[in-house]
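User: Could you check the structure of this?
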Amino acid sequence: MNIIHILAIAIGLSADSFVVSTTEGMLLKHSRHIHSLRVAIVFAICQGLMPIIGWHIGAGLFEIIHSYANWAAFVILTFIGGRMIYHSFCPDNYSEKQGHSIGLKLWLLGIAISIDALGVGISMGMTGAHIWFPAMMIGLITAISCFWGVQLGEHISKKTGGQAEKAGGTALIIVAISFLL
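Assistant: Sure, the predicted structure tokens are below.
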């Protein structure tokens, strides 16, 4: 596998992370670079480790795990997206916009959006490809795109107000549906 293939895979896998991190930025009332960095690191760890885990799992177990993992990602992302849309209509009940860029919620988002990276790791293991360099590139590209995604989301939120939260929630639900397709 050459560097062009690895970069294409990394960019493709980081697309969902970029959308979710942009949504995170939309949720933040006052972002600091630490928020962007936190999202970037967690999502990069999840996206970088999943191919390694998949590489070790093997194709037989993937079919069992994959069917449940897609549903889990769907439920988590739909729930979070739905909450965002709901709270955009009830701003009084949700005056404290913090996003999910803390704790368990952020890690669950990171895991949910990196399920496809698990499949990439399994396919790479089946072809005998090396995994460490591609996993590092996937993590690096994800970190960069997520850092700027949070920044972009905050900028969009400032320009559009509550509409950004509705759009972000809708984007999460679309990403969730894509896991089932």
